[in-house]
Structures are given as C-alpha cells and as structure tokens.
Amino acid sequence: MSAAETAETAEVEPEPTVTERELATQPDCWRRAERDARTAHAGGLADALPRPGERVAVTGCGTSWFVAQSYAALREAAGQGETDAFAASAFPVARGYDRVVAITRSGTTTEVLELLAALRARRSAVPVLVLTADPASPVLRAARHVVVLDYADERSVVQTRFATTALAFLRAALAAAGPLPPGVRPLAEAADDAELALGQPLDAAVVSAEQWTFLGEGWSHGLALEAALKLREAAGAWTEAYPAMEYRHGPIAVAAPGRVVWPLGAVPRGLADEVRRTGALLVPGDALDPMARLVRAQRLAVAVAAARGLDPDRPRHLTRSVVLPEGTA
Length: 329
Hints:
Structural class: alpha/beta
Strand content: 5-15%
Order of helices and strands: HHHEHEEHEEHHHEHEEHEH
Largest sheet: 5 strands, parallel
C-alpha cells in the first residue's frame, strides 16, 4: 500500500465539538478573570463587591447555583462573612442580607429576573451584584452593578467556561480582600493546573463505566455537584454527588464493579479502602486544584457522550436558557 493510500485509510480524528473547544479555553479565561477582579476591587466596582464581614447571599439556577454554593463555602472558610447559597426559585426574599450576588450566563433566566424584581420591590432594597456573559441581556436593566464576562460566553447549551470563570472572578475578588482559606492556592496556579488537566489522557475504564459518583468537601462539594450535572446533561448518564463525609451514610450502597467514585477534593480517612472493597473504581486524588479537576470531569462528560453516540452540543431536552411563559414560574 502506498503512502497516499495509507493516509486515505487512516482513521480521521473527529473535529472537536463546540463544547470541547470552549472548555479548553478555561485557563486563559481564569487568568483574565483574575485581572478583572483585581481591577474591580481597586476601581469602580469596589463598592459592589462583597466586603469582609457582610452577610451575603449568592444565587443562580442549575450550574450557576452550584457555582454559588462553591463560592459561599469558600467565602465563609476565608473568614470574610456568613454566606448562603440558594437556587433563585427558592430564595428567601424576606430574609435580611447585606448583599446579594446573582450568577446568570444568559441574563434571561426567568427565576433570576423575577427574584431581582422581588428584591427591588422590598421596602429596604438590598445591594445586588450580577455576573453574566451577555452585555445586551435584560439583567443589565435589573441590577445596578453588573460584571460582564463576555469573553467566557458560550455557544454551548452545556455550561463549562462561563461557570468556572464566574467562580474564578469571585475567588480572585476574595483573594484581593484578604487571605484565602488554608490549602486554597492562588488562582494563577489553578489555571496552570487546568492546563495540565486538559492535556492528561482520560482513563478508559472511567470513560466506559456505567455510573459515576462525585465527592467534595467544603467548597469542592459545589464542584462535585456540577461535575455530576455535566455528565447528566451531555451524556444522559447516571451520576450522583455528595459531601465526601456523607458518602458512607447510604450512597456507598450503589458502589460496585464497573462504577466510579471520583473525589474533587480531599478523600476522608479510610474512605479509599471502603470504596475499593466494593469493587468500584476510585479515581486517585492528585495535587490539582479542585477547579482543574472539574475541567477533567467536563472532558469526561464529552467523552462519555461520544462513546454513547450522543452530541454534547445538542443535549436532550435542554435549552441554553430557561425562559418560562408568564404565569408558569
């Protein structure tokens, strides 16, 4: 066979999906978000960012809610103030907070816009900071202070880079206001770790598993929830997520050969041995930042979708933003 014939019959690598191309840009997005956060802290948005000691609520829907949970845990662990996270549809509007942070990629999500309207209608209005990706979205008219991360916007229905870039911005803003919790490294190192996560091969046994459970501790629990959601959205997969210490309290019953347990944070003492006794595959911990481990899980979601003949750019039953008809929210 000639060289030309060999080239013709060689397997052609498929073109990367939109989701793959977007998630691969995350290290650069995080680095830019860090610069934006430092500028905001020193400039015109200094009064809009949560201040140390304030009681803050963070909100969003779906992926943005999980980002809110991660940021809330990170802020409290940093000692910068009591911080709660709520799905926008379950936000306790009557509760008193010094500031609300809302995260919405599209800025069109019904529950978020209705929540912001309810907060404005309160007798004593609470300051609101919104993070979004679209500079022309309705949310810019719904809040006084808006951070537009348009360089992290996405064509994909499945969120990857906007979510992590929003968290990167908030994480960097925390670092600008005071020290991060012990063990949480500078965002620049997390971006370097994300580049490593993008280049490392995925374990074939992890890709071919029938079920995946993600675990997290503290701020990495929100990331574990998000990792599980990516697999559900992109691949229609059976995935679960729990606080790592809660895993023994029932969920470990589903562990079995052909199933995966994947910690995004530290592994509690003794848990690794318990998982191995079930026959499940435990993804070993490493030194990568939890946000970088989420990037690896995003890649897994794309790989599992491909293995199942699904298109991660066209997830079943999902749209880029949930906009409900009037009267149905």
